[in-house]
Amino acid sequence: MYPKLVIDLKKYANNLKKMIEITNLNNISLAVVSKVFLGAQPLIAIINETSVSYIADSNLSNLRNIETTKEKIFLRIAQLNEIKELVETADISLQSELLTIKKIDLEAQEHNKIHKIILMFDLGDLREGIYYKDDYLKVIEEILALKNVKLLGIGTNLTCYGGIIPSLEIYGRLKVIKDLIEKEFKLNLEVISGGNSSSISLLKGGKLPKFINNLRIGEALVLGRETAFGKRIKGFYDDVFLLKASIVEIKIKPSFPEGETGMDAFGKKVKIQDRGLQKRAILAIGRQSISKDDLIPLAKIEIIGASSDHLIVDLKEENYQMGDILTFKLKYGGILSLMTSPYVEKNYEK
Ligand SMILES: *Cc1c(COP(=O)(O)O)cnc(C)c1O
């Protein structure tokens, strides 16, 4: 059935193997991030066959369903009402609020467990974490006093909200924090988790500071690119995920709507250019499953618009028949929404 998301397991395995080679060379442990594919087990099975240390996801329900012997990391800062499930489901979590961490400690006592945390620091990107200029030693002291929470290490997340690109200067802020904590409390932080796919160009250039010993990588493995500059990574596939959708109408029509124009189906004022007659096709997929801007057609056609359940394309000179299938590469948001859509079949190719 179409629309269909085709997922090439061999290509994913290739990207993962290459990433492991790069991180191993730099003494970096890898947390493979599974949120973009909702922790789907066919892809998890590939991760399970490798030497990676951790599987990380931002949804507890994904994490709960994942079958693995790898340690599970919960990526999103936990909600106060999900602490019980967090302690039951994840081995490690990223945290930034003392109140939450204390609740985790109490819950972990109930379960007779030690829950490990990576304390997040905000180095200026302004998403999650303790702001790097704040007084964090007091927080560390309180965490270290907890019996069922173990401070595994510290981490940061970059190029997420503020678009801050990892650099030696930015990482210098994390190094100061690491050194101060280790000196003040006479301990060694086991994990220094330096970021996501946006750290790969620094890593590949041999410039990632040596004190960083962990990265959490998702996008690079599915799209074969780093995310600081959006560059392709050599030897990686960019088409692990492909969308296939079928043509349900082909007609020659004017490109310019006829009559007085108001709003489209999504309440936006319509702005359309007159380009004369077009050979237009309608595909059976729409905004309920994907934004048209996340689609990259393989054929020389042009996407003109989309409503909830129809995608309109200009077929240009291409010769297509009713029922033909068009294939699209995808952007990150596209993979995320197609994986999440119940209207799209998922097809794993071995
Ligand atoms: C999603 C996420 C990642 C992975 O980011 P990619 O750009 O997909 O590599 C890493 N860390 C956190 C906290 C995340 O939420």
Secondary structure blueprint with pairings:
Blueprint: E1 4-8, H1 9-25, E2 29-33, H2 41-48, E3 54-57, H3 60-65, E4 71-74, H4 83-89, E5 92-95, H5 98-110, E6 115-122, E7 130-131, H6 137-144, E8 149-156, H7 168-185, E9 191-193, H8 200-204, E10 214-217, H9 219-223, E11 241-254, E12 277-283, E13 295-297, E14 302-306, E15 311-314, E16 325-330, H10 332-340, E17 345-349
Parallel strand pairs: 1-17, 2-3, 2-10, 3-4, 4-5, 5-6, 6-7, 6-8, 8-9
Antiparallel strand pairs: 1-11, 11-12, 11-16, 12-15, 13-16, 14-15
Helix pairs in contact: 1-2, 4-5
Bound molecules: pyridoxal-5'-phosphate.
Describe this structure in words.
It is built from 10 helices and 17 strands. 27% of the residues lie in helices and 26% in strands. A hairpin with a 4-residue loop joins strand 14 and strand 15. It is elongated and about 75 Å long. With 350 residues, the protein is an alpha/beta fold. Strands 2, 3, 4, 5, 6, 7, 8, 9 and 10 form a 9-stranded parallel beta sheet that branches. Strands 1, 11, 12, 13, 14, 15, 16 and 17 form an 8-stranded mixed beta sheet that branches. The structure holds pyridoxal-5'-phosphate. Pyridoxal-5'-phosphate is lined by residues 33, 35, 58, 75, 94, 157, 196-197, 216-220, 227.
